[in-house]
Amino acid sequence: MTQTKTVKIVAMVLALLTLVTLLVVFTAPTADAAVIKQGSTGATVKTIQTKLKRWGYYTGSVDGIFGAKTKSAVQYFQRKNGLTADGIVGSATAKAMGITLSGTASSSGTTTAGSLSNSDLYLLSCCIYGEARGESYTGKVAVAAVILNRVKSSAFPNSISGVIYQAGAFTCVSDGQINMGTNDECTRAAQDALNGWDPTGGAIYYFNPATATSKWIWSRPQLVTIGKHIFCS
């Protein structure tokens, strides 16, 4: 075999290896795919695992690898939040978790934890504590989401403090429990709501059916029940 033929063969082998490498890189499932599912890897998977672990759905390692345990945790989250329990993080599940499929929370047109003053974050956390300290973590986030949905609605004041202190809006303000302070869990719930997690699906009202005396609140379209609260639009 001549030296020229040898060089050509080596060049062809190298080109083939390069093509195979590119195919592996660009077809392997990653966290930046259209959906995140078993086999995906990357930063977004870590974000999903971190959130699920914080909320009590996941007990495995935060390793950025979407395995069977992560899939089971996603299914658990989906069942609890009225989503299709397929173990796949598509747009609806990602929205419910407060993430985007690129791994960062969307801030377009919304108030985020990073853009909020410490006093407003503390006030939001105190309101969660006063209204929902006996509720599950999801129930706490849901109360915060209602407050933020009101801020975005033209029918309510356009600030967190304005919404919370609107006359007759929240029992904890009326009876003074807003001044009881807060705890770390309520602060985390406030931050998750600010980063986009809305377990209510856009609710602007909620009530406890065991104690509600207003006939009007029962007339509102009901979206979801979380713990002792019914959330309405």
Notes on the protein architecture:
By secondary structure, this protein is mainly alpha-helical. It has helices at 3-27, 43-54, 68-80, 91-97, 118-132, 137-152, 160-164, 171-174, 184-194, 215-218, and strands at residues 205-207, 222-226, 229-232. The protein has a 3-stranded antiparallel beta sheet, covered by helices on one side. Helix 5 crosses helix 9 and helix 6 packs across helix 9 (184-194). The model is unreliable at 22-33 and 103-109 (pLDDT under 50).
Task: Return Rg in Å.
Answer: 24 Å
Low-confidence runs? 22-33, 103-109
Helix content range:
40-55%
Q: What is the H/E string? A: HHHHHHHHHEHEE
Short characterization:
The protein is mainly alpha-helical and 233 residues long. It has 10 helices and 3 strands; from the N terminus they run αααααααααβαββ.
What labels would you give this structure?
single chain, 10 helices, 233 residues, 48% helix, three-stranded antiparallel β-sheet, mainly alpha
